[in-house]
Structure to design on (43 residues):
């Protein structure tokens, strides 16, 4: 892993995180597909 690659991964992570509020479905930590309402109630 180079600093360049880690920087790219961080940029991709931030891009995906910014889209989360628009999601209808989420894959949770146990790899189950749940609705955003179910996901938010688990937090």
């Amino acid at each position: 892993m180079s600093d360049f690659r880690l920087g790219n991964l961080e940029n991709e992570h931030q891009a995906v995180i910014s889209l989360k509020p628009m999601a209808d479905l989420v894959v949770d930590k146990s790899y189950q597909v749940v609705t955003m309402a179910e996901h938010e109630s688990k937090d």
Remarks:
- The first strand starts at residue 25 and ends at 27.
- The helical segments are 3-19, 36-42.
- The first helix runs from residue 3 to 19.
